[in-house]
Amino acid sequence: MARMRVVQVTSANGPFELVERDLPAPAAGQVRLRVEACGVCHSDMFTKVGAWPGIEYPRVPGHEVVGRIDAVGPQVPDWKVGARVGVGWHGGHCGHCPKCRRGDFLSCAEGKVPGISYDGGYADYMIAPFEALASVPDELSSAEAAPLLCAGITTFNALRHSGAVAGETVAILGIGGLGHLAVQFAARMGYRTIAIARGADKGPLALKLGAHQYVDSTAQDVAAELMKHGGARLILATVTDSKSMSAAVGGLGVDGKLLVVGASPEPIEVSPFALIPGRRSVAGWPSGTATDSEDTMDFSALVAVRPMIEIYPLERAAEAYERMMSGQARFRVVITTG
User: Fold this and answer.
1) Is the pLDDT of residue 319 over 90?
2) How far apart are CA 106 and CA 93, in angstroms?
3) Domain range spanning residue 192?
4) Which of the residues 65, 92, 263, 289 could staple to 112 if both were Cys, CB 3.0 to 4.6 A apart?
C-alpha cells in the first residue's frame, strides 16, 4: 500500500514526530490533497500543547495548506483531480445548525479546523471536506498562497468588513506575521495607512510595504500621532499585546473602531469615557470561509500583495515551528514537501 510522511504530535506538549502512514482514501464529500506547502501559524500551538478542548491524538497540525487534488471521493461536486486548492482555518461546517442555515458558516456550531479537528498539512497528503476548498490563482506560488489562508484572510476580511472607506485613516498596530500583510492590504484598498510598531528600525519596511506614515510606539505617543489626522477611523490590532491595544484607543476618531485580530489572554482596558463621546467601539474579527480565502488570494494576485516568508522542508517541521514561536521569523514560516 502507498505510504506518506506526516509530522504528528502524539500527546499534549509532546514532541513533533516524523513518521510514515498508509495513504488515506477520501470518503464521501472529501478530497485528498497532495500537499505542496503549509504555513506554520501561531495557532498551531493549540495542537502542540493540547490547548483546544477535546483534541484527539495523534494529530497532524497545519491549517494554511496548499496542494493539488489527487483523489476525489463520492458526492463531491465540481472539484476535479489536478486542481490547485487551499484549505484554511475554516475546515468545514455542518450546513444544518442555526448559524449555517443563515449562511454564517464560520460560526457553525460543529465547525472544524484542519490540524485540530482532523489531520492538517504538516504532511505529504491530507484529506479535506470539499466545502473547505479554495481555488488558488496561478499568479501565486503555493508557498506564497499558504499564509494568505489564515494571516491573509484574517486581515483582509477584517479590513473590508470594518466600515472604513477609501481615503479614511486606518492604523495597523504591529508589523509581524499579520501586520505586514495588513499594511499592504490597507494601502491597496485606498486607506491613509499608518503603521505602528516598536522601534525605528521597522519604519523603512513599513513604508516599503505601502504605509504612508510610520509611528514608533517606543518614541512617539501613538494616540497623539493619530489625532493629528483627526483620529483613526480604524485601528486594526494585529499584535498580541493588550496594553498596546489599550494605549491606542485614544487615537480613534469619531465613530472609530479598534478591531482586534491579535489573540491575547490579557484584558483590553478601556474607560467608558473613551468610548461614549465619540461613539467609539472595540470589536474582534475571526478569519473567514473558503470563498473569503479565494477573495483574499484573488485580491493579492491583482494588486501584488505578497507575504514575506521563510521556507523549511517537511522533515524540519519542528525547527520551523520553533522559529515561528521565537517571534524572530520575517514574517511567516512555510513548510514545503519535496
Assistant:
1) yes
2) 8
3) 153-284
4) 92
